[in-house]
């Protein structure tokens, strides 16, 4: 999981951890690593232009999917957010992407507008968009989709 500072990653991690049984592996300023029954999750709290591949540790040998968090309440950061996603995608070709639109109850932009701005239609890999922070949090659907994608790739 990546996203700009203040995009809502830590809040999302807490939300996921409340819903699903997990084992903490590592928790620090830069990275949180958690083990769930179906998958391992690595959150990069402070990612820069470096590839996240450079930070993969022996527990997480390979990145199989990406959760990208974008704050829908902050229009000023949307372009930087897109640039961050692009820079990571250039280095992680072909992996499925779950785009989580956070703070959707305070959104300044619609899902459709984000999909267009982020040029998701042009992506070659599978992608899926869900919101959080709205009345109905869609994180479970998003994680189910991601897990199915990973299983499908492994077959
Ligand atoms: N109102 C509202 N605020 C939110 C929501 N999600 C996150 N925030 C706030 O947005 C700020 C940033 O959220 P964090 O969860 O710390 O996100 P982050 O900075 O991407 O996380 P890390 O970089 O991993 O520390 C915090 O002040 C949160 O309280 C939300 O759904 N609603
Ligand atoms: Mg933060």
Automatic annotation (TrEMBL):
GO terms for biological process: intracellular protein transport; vesicle-mediated transport. Pfam families: Arf (PF00025). The keyword Ion transport does not apply. Keywords: GTP-binding, Nucleotide-binding. GO terms for cellular component: cytoplasm. InterPro entries: P-loop_NTPase, Small_GTPase_ARF, Small_GTPase_ARF/SAR. GO terms for molecular function: GTP binding; GTPase activity. The keyword Cytoplasm does not apply. This is ADP-ribosylation factor. It comes from Paramecium tetraurelia.
């Amino acid at each position: 999981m990546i996203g700009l500072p203040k995009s809502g990653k830590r809040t999302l991690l807490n939300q996921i951890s409340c819903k699903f049984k997990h084992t903490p592996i590592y928790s620090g300023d830069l990275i949180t690593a958690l083990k769930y029954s179906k998958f391992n999750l690595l959150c990069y709290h402070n990612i820069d232009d470096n590839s996240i591949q450079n930070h993969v540790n022996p527990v997480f040998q390979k990145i199989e999917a990406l959760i990208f968090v974008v704050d829908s309440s902050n229009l000023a950061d949307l372009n930087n957010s897109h640039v961050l996603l692009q820079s990571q995608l250039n280095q992680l070709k072909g992996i499925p992407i779950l785009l989580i639109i956070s703070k959707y109850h305070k959104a300044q932009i619609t899902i459709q507008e984000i999909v267009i701005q982020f040029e998701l239609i042009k992506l070659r890999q599978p992608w899926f968009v869900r919101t959080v922070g709205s009345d109905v949090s869609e994180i479970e659907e998003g994680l189910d989709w991601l897990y199915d994608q990973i299983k499908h790739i492994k077959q």
